Amino acid sequence: MARYDKGQRDTTRRHILDIASAQFRESGIAAVGLAGIMSAAGLTNGAFYTHFSSKEELVRAVLLDALERREQRHKDNLENGVGFETTIRDYLSPRHRDRAATGCPTAALAAEIARHPKATRDAFTGKISDIIALMATQMPQGSAAERRRRAISVYATMVGALQLSRAVNDMQLSEEILADATEAAIHLADSW
Question: What percentage of the chain exceeds 70 in pLDDT?
Fold first, then answer.
């Protein structure tokens, strides 16, 4: 059995995560097999078990990684003075709609995650709660409870609209969904 040094192991694990993340978001978790992930990563199927004990562990790792990156993007926007309206417009853009493999994991995978084991749902729930809390800090006014309610409404609007815009096969309708949801989310964020 080949031995890897720690740096190579970490690099290989990161590579597997990146490949799996893109494939899961593009095709869905159930449609993606370990053999396809490992082939795309240029590795053998046996090498998978050096890094993960199961596909479910990989799913959890992908979710945590992708959601942490999404959360960091929100934090970076805050630190760089990017307004919440810009974040909403970027999220509900045709560019984001058309790039599911690199886009929001919540919009791409939420329906599937609902059918996964408790440990995976717990990991997902924790990260979604963190993102909602971060979004609540961006609401312009109201009590903490009001800002949290608005953040939940805005996030749900954004995720649902992105899912719908990807699902319909009428491009004009898809564009309308994105545009109308953008205005609704901005209004929700600014209201109260």
Answer: 96
